[in-house]
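ESCALATION

Customer reports they have been waiting on this structure for their group meeting. Please prioritize. Original submission:
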Amino acid sequence: MPRLVRRLSAVALAAGLLMLTGCGLLGGASPDASPNDKVEKSTIRVGRLALVDAIPLHIAIDKGYFEAEGLKIELSTMGRGSDGVDKLAAGELDVGLTSYPQPLIAHTKGVAKLKVVADAVETTPDLILAVVKENGPITDARQLAGKKIAISSKRGISELVMTDQLTSMGVDPKAVSFISMPITDMPAALGRGDVAAAIIAQPPLEEAKQQGAMKLLDPFTGPTVSFPWSGWFATEQFVRDNPRTVDAFRRALSRGVTNVSDRNVLEQSAVKNLGTKEGTARMMTVPRFPSTTDPVRLQRVADLLAKYGEIPKVDSPQGVRAELDMRSMVLPPLPPALWATTTTGN
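Update from on-call: job pushed to the front of the queue and completed.
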């Protein structure tokens, strides 16, 4: 009888363990649950643009920096930065790469409450250009009145800075038609004459120049020189629910940033991960990849958006300022030892 009791007890214990496992109390329930104790969510969905902006991410993936943090990156590619904002709002991405205006507009309008996880790119001369057909009819930016200009996202950063540049030239920006399309489609659209000009970033810019596109204007000069171009964003809820995951992502990405100071590493990653031709990679202009996320620097974007009525503004002795204080969107810095200042040139 005691032997039978022991056998029945063992069976009951095994059944109980199976039930606990099935309910997730032993870590096997939710597909989103992390299989390690480093992070809350071990697989995160990241949206990138096929631009030089994404290279630190790819380097961090290739060198195993995310894996070392207990993270697996499920990567998808977007044609426009605004796609990233839409996918974050819909819960289809955990982290997305996009230029700054769209997420700031969405945040202030309550469409998606967002946080800047990390700064991505600051412009350098000739990084992003307004280009036209070589030997075409447009030779001066003032001639763009009444014409079509290709941009990546409506109300995005290209439209914002071009609006500012045209206004300073005495051209009414409302006289220009901004046409949204993926950056990779712009060279062909320019060649067909579908648009009179296009605002193109690297590396597609270098490819467009090789196909006969000619520089008309560098929009990131004067008041918009060394301007914040793009960043990595997540929703406030994701950051709140997954603080260790977000910090792990930031640490791995920052290690990728330290690697882009080596031009050879940067070019090799562009060829491997962006599909850039080797000759194009050697020729392309590269940005500054900030190693810290400075809300004072990012405030320049918010204030320019406020100047043109895209987000609420307040009057100040310094002129029009955004009601949005970028300190409210930027995460506290990681310990300084984990970041290294990295500036790359041509």
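Sent to customer with the following note: The chain has two domains: 43-122+227-338, 128-224.
Escalation resolved.
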